[in-house]
Write a structure and sequence with these properties.
This protein has 267 residues and is α/β, with parallel strands linked by helices. It is built from 10 helices and 13 strands. The protein has a domain of 173 residues: Metallo-beta-lactamase, Chain A, CATH 3.60.15. The strands form 2 sheets. Strands 1, 2, 3, 4, 5, 6, 7 and 13 form an 8-stranded mixed beta sheet that branches. It starts with 7 loop residues before the first strand and ends in an 8-residue tail after the last strand.
Length: 267
């Protein structure tokens, strides 16, 4: 059987913030120190296809939410030779503010989104502040406008977009969270997004506290393991260790971009 054309995969770090243990793990001591959260967007690129995964947030949103803004995700993409104006496919793992801001900077893109995520973000649960607080109403309304403009491609569960790249509905963190499975030079890699914020969430069985369905979140960890060729090829969505475990594609990109289609260093 012919293998798919391998993708290069990159993580672009655009913001960061300090956290307490209780902010990262359900049931943690509120006074426990914990890992920072880093904020990323991702790029999967082959000779034939380019996919941007999530679009981050901008500097005004960082001020509003108390995050440390490092650079525009669009600037990070440009450092890899990707012009946001020319991106045709943007995968939205879910509609939280830190994954869907800046979509207006991708004027040519079609957005890949789960049916369940749009229903969740526009349905009854948004009347509950616990669920609604991670969404920005203006961004959700704008995405609805993109639906009417024919720019949203909905998926109902798992879907192969091209040979070597597929979407997989996980849920848990939000009702319609999806992850991205990518064929690379080291095998099948999974961009977990917020199905696994930190390695410790999954590896220590400690769920992240921003969650719609804890059971689905926990079940999702096993699904991630099934999708990846090696547990080391599961890339968490917010772990600062990502920047330490992988190499930058060039010296001038150190601290900004790392290449993920490689086995991570231990640590």
């Amino acid at each position: 059987m012919t293998q798919p054309e391998p993708f290069e995969v990159y993580a672009i770090r655009y913001a960061t913030m300090a956290r307490t243990g209780a902010e990262n793990f359900i049931g943690a001591d509120p006074h426990e120190a914990a890992s920072r959260l880093d904020y990323y967007v991702w790029l999967a690129r082959s000779p034939s296809h380019t996919f941007v995964i999530d679009s981050g947030f901008n500097e005004p949103m960082a001020r509003k939410r108390g995050r440390e803004f490092l650079r525009s995700p669009v600037e990070g993409l440009s450092l890899l030779g990707v012009d946001a104006n020319e991106v045709s496919d943007l995968i939205v793992t879910h509609l939280h503010y830190d994954h869907i801001g800046n979509f207006d900077l991708f004027p040519s893109a079609h957005f890949h989104l789960q049916d369940d995520e749009m229903a969740f973000a526009t349905g009854r649960y948004m009347a509950q502040p616990f669920f609604a607080r991670s969404f920005e109403p203006d961004e959700i309304v704008a995405m609805v406008r993109n639906v009417y403009a024919g720019r949203v491609e909905f998926h109902d569960g798992d879907a192969e977009l091209v040979d070597g790249l597929s979407l997989h509905h996980i849920g848990g963190h939000t009702k319609g969270l999806q992850v991205v499975r990518v064929w690379t030079r080291v095998g099948w890699l999974v961009l977990a997004s917020d199905a696994c914020h930190l390695h410790a969430n999954m590896n220590e069985g400690r769920p992240f506290p921003v969650v719609f369905d804890v059971g689905r979140m926990v079940d999702g960890w096993q699904r991630l393991r099934e999708l990846a060729d090696d547990p080391r090829l599961i890339v968490p969505g917010h772990d600062p260790l990502v920047m330490a475990q992988y190499e930058a594609p060039s010296k001038d990109l150190e601290g900004i971009v790392v290449r993920l289609d490689a086995l991570p260093r231990a640590g």
